[in-house]
Every structure is written in C-alpha cells, then in structure tokens.
Amino acid sequence: MNLLALPAFTDNYIWMVHDGQRALVVDPGDAQPVFHALQQHGLQLEAILVTHHHADHVGGVDALRDATGASVYGPARERIPAPLHKLSQGERISALGIAFEVIDVPGHTAGHIAYFAPDWEGAPLLFCGDTLFSGGCGRLFEGTPAQMLVSLSALAALPGNTRVCCTHEYTLGNLKFARAVEPDNAALAQYQAECVAKRAADVPTLPSSIALELKINPFLRTRCTAVQQAARAFDASTLDEASVLGALRTWKNQF
Ligand SMILES: [Zn+2]
Ligand SMILES: [Zn+2]
Questions:
Q1: In Å, how far are 15, 104, 110, 150, 183 from 143, measured between CA atoms?
Q2: Furthest-apart CA pair in the chain: how many Å?
Q3: How many angstroms separate the CA atoms of 206 and 184, rounded?
Q4: What angle do CA 154, 211, 12 make, to 5 degrees?
C-alpha cells in the first residue's frame, strides 16, 4: 500500500492511502487534488475520513462523494456534510481493509477526532488533523488548554513508531518557536536542520513520529522543567501542566 501527501491550498496535505486500485483520503478540503491523484494512479475512492468541521478539511467532501460514491466518516459532534458515518471515542471502522480506532481529541474544535490504525504496513498510522503538528499543536478555537492537554496526552501515549500524519505543513514555523522555548534541546536543533533541508528541496516534513515529537515538541513536553521554566518566564502565573500548555499556546499565537 502507498501513503501520499497531496498538497492543497497553501500548506494543507490531503493524506491518501491506496493499494493500486482503491483509495481513502483524509480531510479533503479541496476535491481537485484528489480527483487528479485518482486519475493519475487509476484509483477508485472508497472512503473519506474527516477529523473536524473546518472548511479547509471538508470543502471537497460533497464533490468527491457525488462523483465516487465513497463512504464518509466524521466526528459525531460536529456539522459535517451528510450522509455521514458518525464516530466518537473508541469506535472502530475498517476502510480499505485497514482497521482504525477513533480517538476523541477536543481542543482545536469541540468535537475533533483522530484516526489510529494500530498496524499499517508494519507500524501504526495516525491521522490527527489539526490537533498535533510536528513541533506544535492546533490553536484552541473551541476548547481549553486542559482539554488539549488530555487530547495531546492520548496521542503521546501511542507507540513511538506511530507515523503522525498532520494536515498542515507548519513544521518550520513551529520549530522556530520550539527553539525559543528550549534553546538547549540538541535533538530539536538537529531536527530543525533536517526539516529546513527538506523544505528547501520541496519535500514534506511529514509524517513525523510520536517518538520524535516527544523529544522536540514543547506542547508534548509540558512536564519538562525547561519547558515549564520558559512558560513561567512568559507568564508568571503559570502553575500546572494545563496552564503551561495554555501559556505556550498564547506565546506561540504572538510569536
Ligand atoms: Zn482546523
Ligand atoms: Zn486545518
């Protein structure tokens, strides 16, 4: 099977999995890149997985469903173009013969879900939308820092070799911020250099992995002393882990 990141808009990726005949896509904000890939590889679209309701994730759903008859899966608690298989925490689906588990990850939006395949081609696979990015996390449009902390902790607890497929190529901007938080993190400096080289060659920095994110992503490192100290230097009222995450998020918004 193949895993493709189809570029869309300025910095979105529409993830596609295909076996040479059938395909699934995740968060098709635009139908055109998907139609193009289906035609190019001679594929039938079977399933569309949606993580949350933002237009850059659902904009192409109706056109793709109408043209291909693909089944659409999405969060039970958000308004996604119907007909829809509504999903929430713990539910399982099979698409293209791949078993996915649904994880509730509120924070960026109130009903955001992620799709976790425990075994895909020898390692787990995660589609996490706008919750976890490489080196960062989504903005808190509809949720609280405490909710996001729980959501990110659930993703952080997945196996280290889980391939993390995020929807946006935000990595370089995130890493600039991460270095401001943890200037002495050597793994972070090395990863930043690798990602700068990838982007210069127009190569995606994704997928990442959970093991890597645990080493470099300040939003998964709110328990680390260096991260807590940096958050307190930004906002002296910062106490518990949720408020560390909240301070980092506010700091990043202004960065
Ligand atoms: Zn979003
Ligand atoms: Zn988005």
A1: 25, 13, 6, 11, 29
A2: 57
A3: 24
A4: 75
Q: Dump pLDDT digits (tens) for 143-161.
A: 999 999 999 999 999 999 9
Which DSSP string do the residues of 207-221 spell out, in sequence order?
Answer: -EEHHHHHHH-GGG-
Calpha distance 125→127 (Å, rounded): 7
If you average pLDDT over residues 170-179, what whole number do you get?
98
Name the phi and psi angles at 60, rounded to 5. -100, 0
Range 44-48 contact pairs with CB under 8 angstroms and sequence separation of 24 or more: 44/68, 45/70, 46/22, 46/70, 46/71, 46/95, 46/96, 47/71, 47/72, 47/73, 47/95, 47/96, 48/24, 48/72, 48/73
pLDDT digits (tens, 9 = 90+) for 74-130: 999 999 989 999 999 999 999 999 999 999 999 999 999 999 999 999 999 999 999
Q: Which of 18, 27, 30, 57 is catalytic?
A: 57
Ion ligand 1, residue ranges at CB < 5 A: 54, 130
Decide if 108 is catalytic.
yes
CA 136 to centroid of ligand 1, rounded, Å: 14
pTM of structure = 0.98
Residue closest to 71 by CA, chosen among 94, 90, 52: 94
For residue 27, give the ligand nearest its CA: 2
Q: Name the residue type at position 98.
A: I
